[in-house]
Design brief:
8 helices; DUF155 domain-containing protein; DUF155; RMD1/Sad1-interacting; 8-stranded mixed sheet
């Protein structure tokens, strides 16, 4: 009996051991299956996520501008249309030259009129208007890029001075909504309520008969346009400066490797003249990038529009960056000019020494016998006179 109990106890323990082993094995298999299921589900989810963007590809914006960083701020306006809000229309800015001669536009734009620092074209194309500024840029409201380029080609080409190799562009959008306050939100301009002008003489001198866009926001559009034109003109200057810096980038390397700048004195002076032209265009022209136009000193609301657009486009920071690049390039070329000056001075000293040597040789050839007679002739005569006496 006791033997039977011992065998039964042994068999029970073995069964328990086997059951525990089977349970652990089952748990491991279950965990492995769970991990595989999670992995496959994750792969499937990842694949679905990876495939989804390819179905709805995102288009790269035509122009990369600082406003693109805050473009998401305009989503609430874009995604929530209201009955009082118009459709979204483009605002396109083009810079095609260093400057325009606005006096040449009068005969080509009979319907245009002067509006402070710009020529205002109240109608162009299909329901659009244009502001032309003397800094070589113009702003189109409600027109596509094709219409803007056609205007540049057909109207502005004869008045261009210093045509740019590639036009610079800035593209935003706008809506009109009389229930909203006029402002810029992200990359969207909202034309709505505006306060009355502080001084009536700042209003347009000639009221248009039927403008393409609401007349009550005309000065607001002009203000935004002036800020946009400065930014686009600055982009043209930045691009020209980059090309210039690329052309002189090898000067320090040439000086390091060969001890010579690799450019003549005349070429370096021309490069310095180009730098002076850049700095003049950046800081000293009437349409520079630092000063606030006189109109906005007397109109606080318009000044707010101008400064908000200027800040959104980072005009001040970009202007400082361009000035720093010009300063660095000027210092490098001033150093090279000093080296050329020292080299030319050394050559001039050698020339002077050579001229002195030639003059000495000529003097010896011309006056040599006389000098010889003066130096040695008297002692020779004395020797001949003293010889007979001896």
């Amino acid at each position: 009996m006791n033997a039977f109990r011992r065998e039964l106890r042994t068999a029970t323990g073995s069964l328990r051991t086997n059951l525990r082993s089977y349970s652990n094995h089952t748990s491991l298999v279950s965990a492995a299956v769970h991990r595989n299921h999670w992995f496959l589900s994750s792969r499937a989810f990842s694949a679905s996520v990876d495939v989804e963007p390819s179905e709805t590809p995102k288009h790269k914006p035509k122009a990369s501008t600082p406003l693109r960083r805050s473009a998401s701020a305009s989503i609430p306006i874009r995604s929530n249309p209201t009955p009082t809000r118009s459709s979204i229309k483009p605002v396109i800015t083009l810079a095609t030259a260093e400057r325009y001669l606005l006096s040449r536009l009068r005969s080509r734009l009979p319907d245009a009129q002067t509006l402070h620092d710009a020529w205002w074209v109240p109608h162009w194309g299909d329901g659009g208007e244009i502001f032309v500024f003397s800094n070589g840029s113009f702003v189109c409201w409600g027109l596509g890029e094709g219409e803007a380029r056609r205007f540049a080609r057909e109207v502005l080409a004869p008045s261009e001075v210093g045509r740019l190799k590639d036009p610079e562009t800035e593209e935003l959008e706008f809506v009109t909504d009389p229930t909203e306050k006029t402002r810029i939100q992200g990359d969207l301009i909202i034309l709505g309520r505006v306060a009355p002008l502080e001084y009536s003489e700042n209003a347009p001198a000639v009221s248009p008969g039927s403008p393409a866009l609401p007349a009550d926001t005309l000065l607001a559009r002009y203000t935004f346009s002036q800020a946009l034109s400065r930014s686009t003109a600055l982009s043209g200057l930045e691009e020209s400066l980059e090309d210039y810096l690329s052309s002189v980038a090898l000067l320090p390397h040439s000086l390091e490797k060969t001890g010579k700048p690799g450019l003549s004195r005349e070429a370096l002076i021309k490069k310095l003249g180009a730098l002076m032209k850049f700095r003049q265009g950046l800081n000293l022209n009437r349409e520079n990038f630092s000063d606030t136009p006189d109109l906005y000193w007397t109109e606080p609301e318009l000044e707010g529009f101008f400064k908000s657009m200027t800040a959104a486009l980072e005009v001040k920071a970009r202007t400082n960056a361009v000035n720093e690049k010009i300063t660095y390039a000027t210092e490098v070329q001033s150093t090279l000019r000093q080296l050329l000056t020292e080299s030319s001075t050394h050559r001039m000293e050698l020339v002077i020494i050579a001229l002195i040597a030639v003059e000495v040789v000529i003097a010896l050839i011309r006056d040599g016998p006389e000098l010889w007679q003066m130096a040695f002739g008297s002692s020779h005569v004395e020797d001949q006179v003293s010889a007979p006496h001896s």
